[in-house]
Amino acid sequence: MLTIGPLEPSDRAAWQELFAGYNEFYGRTTMPDGFYDQAWTRFEQGDELHALGARLDGRLVGITHFLTHASTTSPDVCYLQDLFTAPEARGQGAARALIAAVTDWAKERGCGRVYWSTHETNETARRLYDQVAENRGFILYSIPL
Q: Any idea what the CATH number is for the domain that residue 62 is in?
């Protein structure tokens, strides 16, 4: 059975393994000292950054991290920053359920929309995203600092 909910203190090790997998997928294999501790602490505080987990038969198999920010053209918006499902759990609805849970969370808080980005080569994820969201054709630019 698949369930979605907040991360619990007992999820810390499994969450880090999933988040490391996410970072590795995007080519970030070496993270700075304290990176995972800092992120976990911010999720626990729940002020700016939020996290949910997907559990399949009680085992954490997916994570999402998200935040809200102001918008000049709508009510506050929700940015779904990270979404990752364990390879062995893919195709079982965890990512779809996590997106739906973030969407529900954002609606409850009066957000105008939920949005996210992915790499153009992430074809597996894009098949799902094309089913649950609208691709408005925007291209993401970034300046590393």
A: 3.40.630.30
| CA dist list (Å): 86 to 22, 122, 124 | 9, 15, 13
The values of phi and psi at residue 27, to 5°, are: 80, 15
Q: What is the pLDDT of residues 106-119, one digit of tens each?
A: 999 999 999 999 99
Collect all residues with Cβ–Cβ distance below 8 Å to 22 and sequence separation of at least 6.
63, 82, 83, 84
**Which residue, among 45, 81, 52, 85, has the nearest Cα to 66 in the 3D structure?**
81
* 114-115 vs 77-85, strand pairing mode: parallel
Beta strands 2-6 and 77-85: pairing type?
A: unpaired
Judge whether 144 lies within some domain. no
